[in-house]
């Protein structure tokens, strides 16, 4: 596992976006696994800049997002579809038909999960970007005695809802459920980029990457993947330097 620490968020964003850009330059029809949350925003901004300057084109790129809230109405600004449109897709030359976000509004959510898995089964994600939750979750795979391999519906933990409440008017508006890609699909990606920022994540990222591999810390499963690059800001990296 390759762990890199950056003094500034700008440097982290540039290197991370550079890894995406060089993949797309060598493989214009690359398949990207994308994430939401505050962590990837700076990286997406850098990708927008590279796209607008003509260094990289998303014309033939296909994307699959990790997760989506259940029950938010279409167009709600906190749906992960709206997040992706606003933070990346609306600003680059990607064909929206090539962008995929799990459907959290389907009448039959189980069928929608199955459909997402069928689409994923036909693809091979070249590069998957991940953030980490305060409790060690990746996507919305919450700590548990067992984890799911495929796309499934999850009940969000209270601490996850609290952490995400900052994007809503109040905690009561934060959905109680989500649809998430499973750990199996995430680990199938050819390369995984885990990005972690901030001192409040220093402990959990250290535990996930150096502690026991356990479903109680879903990100610890990344230790079993052969090609993970970890990008940390200074504050998130403190436990690695003693
Ligand atoms: N489902 C998302 C995750 O994919 C994300 O990695 C995590 C961390 O979010 P942030 O980057 O805002 O700290 O929270 C959310 O719950």
From TrEMBL:
It catalyses: alpha-D-glucosamine 6-phosphate + H2O = beta-D-fructose 6-phosphate + NH4(+). One of its GO terms (cellular component) is cytoplasm. GO terms for molecular function: glucosamine-6-phosphate deaminase activity; identical protein binding. Gene3D superfamilies: 3.40.50.1360. One of its GO terms (biological process) is glucosamine catabolic process. It is an enzyme of class 3 (hydrolase). Its EC number is 3.5.99.6. Belongs to the glucosamine/galactosamine-6-phosphate isomerase family. NagB subfamily. HAMAP family: GlcN6P_deamin (MF_01241). This is Glucosamine-6-phosphate deaminase. It comes from Paenibacillus aquistagni.
């Amino acid at each position: 596992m390759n762990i890199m620490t950056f003094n500034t968020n700008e440097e982290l964003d540039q290197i991370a976006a550079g890894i995406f850009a060089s993949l797309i330059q060598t493989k214009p029809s690359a398949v990207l696994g994308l994430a939401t949350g505050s962590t990837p925003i700076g990286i997406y901004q850098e990708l927008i800049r590279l796209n607008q300057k003509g260094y990289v084109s998303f014309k033939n790129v296909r994307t699959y997002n990790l997760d989506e809230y259940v029950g938010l109405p279409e167009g709600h600004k906190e749906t992960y579809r709206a997040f992706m449109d606003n933070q990346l897709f609306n600003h680059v030359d990607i064909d929206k038909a090539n962008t995929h976000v799990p459907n959290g509004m389907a009448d039959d959510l189980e069928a929608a999960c199955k459909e997402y898995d069928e689409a994923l089964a036909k693809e091979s994600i070249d590069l998957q970007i991940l953030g980490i939750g305060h409790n060690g979750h990746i996507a919305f795979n919450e700590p548990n005695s067992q984890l799911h391999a495929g796309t499934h519906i999850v009940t969000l933990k209270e601490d996850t809802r609290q952490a995400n409440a900052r994007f809503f008017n109040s905690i009561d508006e934060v959905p109680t459920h989500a649809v998430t890609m499973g750990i199996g699909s995430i680990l199938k990606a050819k390369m995984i980029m885990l990005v972690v920022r901030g001192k409040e994540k220093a402990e959990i990222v250290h535990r996930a990457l150096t502690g026991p591999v356990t479903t109680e810390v879903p990100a610890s499963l990344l230790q079993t993947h052969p090609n993970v690059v970890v990008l940390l800001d200074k504050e998130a990296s403190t436990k690695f330097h003693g």
